[in-house]
Every structure is written in structure tokens, then in C-alpha cells.
Design a protein that fits this description.
The protein is α+β, with helices and mostly antiparallel strands and 548 residues long. The strands form eight sheets. The chain has a 17-stranded mixed β-sheet that branches. β10 and β11 (168-173) form a beta hairpin. The radius of gyration is 31 Å and the shape is globular.
Length: 548
């Protein structure tokens, strides 16, 4: 379970860090950095296309235009650690000056000469050689004509830009914050296409893990939201639900800004789904514009505005899904989501025993046999707190969100529907009239407990528990005996029942889609249809908050 546990621990640390955020106050234009994973195909290169010639900006806090590339179509590549270049000694004040001298060198010496940019300014580089020896011929020619230089290898620390003729026009150091864009006259904005998909703002690149060239969209916050809201909620839903989504997405984005990181968010479900200019819709643009600058606060601090598709009838408190207790993200009854018509209100999923064994093994458990899957604890909002897998190496416990992540289920509100799962109780167990026993394809058994619990049997029967039968102990007049057979006959207050204790498949029934924290998007849709404002929607799902 190590992999899933690490995921949750990292997220918990992130929650603690983010919860220290103070009140956000917009001063000037607010920007976010979004890693663009799609439609990228290759780790080593990417294609950019502009509406006019592509302009290069240096961005530290604000965009600063530094030069123009005489091209509207470029490809950006990771410089190989096997490539050697000749670095000339002279430094130039501008790209244009370095480019002019580079062209003169090409005319006089042949080979490719191109500007190189780092924190010291512009230099001129030449060639792409497989070794220092290969560079010696040109290096000697340059030296004989009075030009000093050396053969260098940037070792995955540089990025190379080629024009549409596949000619290098720029190389720059990975520590340089260069971004590319062009002017789109139709919208009167800066915009750039990566792999033919347009994005507002600027596109930059960074090298990570010595071999990956990642793309980062530097875009103003409101423009970012234009590309998020229609991808997180249906643009045809009521305007108040779209506004609620816009405010939640804006709050989430601001809260997750991290100046010390390469980027603030991903463009997928790891953060918020962001698909750029082509995905924008008139209705969601309007929702963003009419809530411009608004965010959600608790105790004068920005909240972490979680949201999900469908709650299933109640949302959940953060400490029951992850670990940190966030006072504004507590479980609430959610009849709105329940009557929204969401296709995810109820769901089913089935796995064979072998498939679950594989999932356990893939998560680092050396399991060969599975005897049962048991839900041992649930929250008052119906979500699983602990799920125990009884295996040949013992019982393996998965808690909170880890259980649904392991099983790949739509939510942690689920039951197990299969032949070897039963409720363990006795005829004196009292059930609250509002708490009914979910159908699990099994039944109610009398006096089945773990061996170590026999002395406290009377106490244990006061609560309703569920789980597999194999490996349990039966109390009888002859003492106790362990259940090991495929079938078992049990005498209870209801008579004699024959039970099948071995199961080759596990069927899961559940409600909702997502982690269940914060705003239910289908619930917001229903509240909007019933006449609630976006402020009322947000205050229903986030306890004790203000919107401003």
C-alpha cells in the first residue's frame, strides 16, 4: 500500500502548506503558470505556431518583450547531452546584434551560427557536433582568424529553437525564463498555438528530469478561467451554477499559486481541466466576467475550493477522505445532487478475484490469494473509512480515499455485493429506523466473531459489522471452530441457511463520482434550477464562508 499512502501523505502536506494562505488582494494583472500536457506528444520537442511573427518575452514577474523571431512557425527541442557546440567569447547586447554577427560568421565559415541566451546576455554558438574532436576543425579556423572560443556540452541544460526551414535561430539556458507568443488581431490579445491548439498568453519550456521538455502556459487568471470553466461544468447549465464554478475555480487557482515552483497547476484532473481558447464558450465566459476577481474566504483566508461531480446525497468532511480537518469543508446533506438527474448518482463495478489480487500486487503487496474484502468502517456520510483485504499474507487495511484509489471506483461511497460478504450481529441488535442494511447479496448471521473477540462477544454484537466469512470463528456449544469450507450451514433465529463462502468475483455498488469534498457540480446545477444564487450555492457546500 506504500504507493497510495505516499500519495495521501504528500497531499496532506500540501493541504497544511496551502492552508496558511492569507487573504488574496488583486493588484494589477494576476497570472498563473499551467503545465500543458495535452496535446503534447513528445517529451523532447514541441511545435509552436503564431498568428503573426513569434515574439520572445522574458518573464520574471511581468512579461518583458526582448526580441522578435522572423518566423510564425518554430519547433522547440531539448538539446542532447551528446551534442557539442562552439561557444564564441564575445557577448552582445541584443538578439538582433548577435543574429547579425551570426549571419556574418555563416557567410565566412559555413556551418550553423546562432544566438545563445543566458543570464549574462547574448553570445554566439555554432554547430551540433557529436564530440569535441568533431568541433576542432571549425574551432581552428575561427582561431586562425582571431576569434576565441571553446567546444562545450550543455548536458541537458539548453533548449534549441528552429524555424520552419529547420534552421537553428536561438539556443537558451534552461534557467532563462523565456516565453513565446504572437499577436492575434481578431481578439486583440497575445496568443500562441502549441501542436495546433491555441492558448491565450505565453508558452514557455523547461527541462526536468534531464530528459523531459515540459511546456508551461503563462496566462492571466481570468483568461485561464475562460479555458477551465467549460471543461469542468456543462456550459448549457444555469448561469448561477456556472458562476459558482467560476468562483470556485478562481479560488482554487489563486490558492495553488506557488512562485517557487516551475508551474502552479496541471491542465488535467490533477488540478483543473484546462483546454485553452478553442474550448471557450459564451455562457462560461460571461460567468467568469460577471464574477471577475471574486473568491471564497473563511476567516479572511482563501479556502482550498474543492469540488466534484456528484455527491450521491451527501458531501464529506476532508478528514474522512484525506487527513487534514478543514473547517469550511465539512459534510452536508445534499438532496440537490440526489435529484439532479446525474448519471453518476448510482453506479456498479465488478472485478474478478484475480483482478483485485493484481491491484494489490501492483501496489506493493506480495499477495497470491484473496479470501474476502470487508468494509469495517464507514462515516456518517456513508463513505468507506476502512476496507480490509483478507489474503494469504494476512489482512491488508486500506483507509479512507486509499481504498477507492486502489479499486478504481468512482467514489468511496460503496458497498460490496457478493456471495461471501455478510453482516455479523445477533437477533438483539437494534437498528435505527433510518439506517437500513444495504443489500450485499448476503444475509444476517448470528454470533460470528474473530477468535480474539470471543471474550467480549456480547459487546461486539452491539454494532453492525460486515465482512467475509472465511477465516472467521463460529461459536457453538462445542466451543469455537474456524470456517474454512466453501459452503456453510448456519442455524440462526430465522432457521437454517446454507452459505456460499468462496467468491470468484466482487461486485461493488456505489453512489456519486469524485472525492465528495466541497461543491457537487450536479448539486450546483440543481440549486441553480431551483432559483438559488451562486453565493447561496457556494455557502451551502462550503460552511461559514464569505464571497468577495
Amino acid at each position: 500500500m506504500a504507493k497510495l499512502r505516499n500519495r495521501i501523505i504528500v497531499f496532506s502536506i500540501l493541504i497544511i502548506f496551502l492552508f496558511t494562505a492569507v487573504c488574496y488582494a488583486a493588484t494589477g494583472t494576476e497570472y498563473v503558470k499551467v503545465r500543458i500536457r495535452f496535446p503534447r506528444v513528445y517529451n523532447e520537442q514541441a511545435s509552436l505556431k503564431g498568428y503573426e511573427d513569434i515574439t520572445v518575452y522574458e518573464i520574471n514577474e511581468n512579461p518583458n518583450e526582448i526580441f522578435n523571431l522572423d518566423s510564425n512557425h518554430i519547433s522547440v527541442h531539448l538539446d542532447s547531452n551528446k551534442s557539442y557546440h562552439i561557444e564564441l567569447d564575445d557577448t552582445y547586447d541584443s538578439y538582433e546584434e548577435a543574429l547579425s554577427y551570426a549571419k556574418e560568421f555563416e557567410n565566412n565559415f559555413g556551418d550553423d551560427f546562432y544566438p545563445y541566451f543566458d543570464s549574462d546576455g547574448f553570445k554566439i554558438y555554432a554547430g551540433f557536433y557529436s564530440s569535441k574532436n568533431d568541433a576542432k576543425s571549425l574551432l581552428n579556423k575561427l582561431s586562425n582568424n582571431g576569434y576565441d572560443g571553446e567546444a562545450v556540452n550543455t548536458e541537458f541544460r539548453s533548449i534549441v529553437v528552429y524555424n520552419e526551414k529547420n534552421k537553428p535561430v536561438l539556443m537558451y539556458d534552461n534557467n532563462s525564463n523565456l516565453y513565446f507568443t504572437s499577436y492575434y488581431d481578431k481578439e486583440s490579445i497575445d496568443m500562441i498555438m502549441i501542436e495546433n491548439r491555441p492558448y491565450r498568453g505565453y508558452m514557455g519550456f523547461k527541462i526536468i528530469e534531464d530528459s523531459k521538455l515540459i511546456s508551461i502556459n503563462y496566462v492571466d487568471l481570468e483568461s485561464y478561467l475562460y479555458g477551465v470553466v467549460p471543461n469542468e461544468i456543462s456550459a448549457s447549465w444555469g448561469m448561477e451554477s456556472l458562476k459558482a464554478q467560476a468562483v470556485a475555480a478562481r479560488t482554487y487557482a489563486i490558492y495553488n499559486k506557488n512562485p517557487r515552483a516551475l508551474y502552479d497547476m496541471d491542465d488535467n484532473q490533477n488540478s483543473q481541466v484546462y483546454r485553452g481558447y478553442n474550448s471557450e464558450k459564451e455562457s462560461t465566459d460571461k460567468a467568469v466576467d460577471e464574477t471577475r476577481g471574486e473568491a471564497i474566504y473563511y476567516d479572511d483566508k482563501l479556502i482550498q475550493a474543492f469540488y466534484h461531480s456528484t455527491s450521491g446525497g451527501s458531501t464529506e468532511s476532508t478528514e474522512n477522505v484525506w487527513f487534514e480537518n478543514l473547517p469550511y469543508a465539512v459534510g452536508v446533506d445534499d438532496a440537490y445532487s440526489d435529484r439532479s438527474g446525474s448519471p453518476y448518482n448510482e453506479w456498479q463495478k465488478s472485478y474478478s478475484k484475480e483482478e483485485i489480487i493484481k491491484k494489490l500486487r501492483d501496489d506493493g503487496n506480495n499477495v497470491r490469494e484473496l479470501y474476502s474484502v470487508e468494509i469495517t468502517k464507514v462515516t456518517e456520510n456513508n463513505r468507506v473509512v476502512e476496507c480490509i483485504f483478507s489474503t494469504d499474507i494476512g489482512e491488508i487495511s486500506y483507509k479512507k480515499e486509499n481504498a477507492r484509489l486502489l479499486l478504481g471506483l468512482m467514489s468511496s461511497w460503496f458497498d460490496i455485493i457478493n456471495g461471501n460478504v455478510y453482516y455479523f450481529t445477533n437477533e438483539f441488535t437494534y437498528l435505527n429506523e433510518n439506517k437500513t442494511v444495504p443489500s450485499r447479496g448476503g444475509g444476517i448471521l448470528d454470533n460470528i466473531v474473530d477468535a480474539e473477540d470471543e471474550e467480549e462477544a456480547n459487546e461486539s454484537f452491539k454494532s453492525l459489522n460486515s465482512g467475509g466469512i472465511i477465516g472467521k470463528n463460529v461459536i457453538s456449544s462445542d466451543g469455537t471452530s474456524k470456517i474454512t469450507k466453501d459452503t456453510l450451514s448456519v442455524i440462526s433465529s430465522n432457521g437454517i441457511s446454507t452459505l456460499k463462502t468462496d467468491s470468484s468475483s466482487y461486485n461493488f455498488e456505489g453512489r456519486g463520482w469524485g472525492h465528495g469534498i466541497g461543491m457537487s457540480q450536479y448539486g450546483a446545477k440543481q440549486m441553480a434550477e431551483e432559483g438559488f444564487s451562486y453565493e447561496e450555492i457556494l455557502k451551502h457546500y462550503f460552511t461559514g464562508v464569505t464571497i468577495r
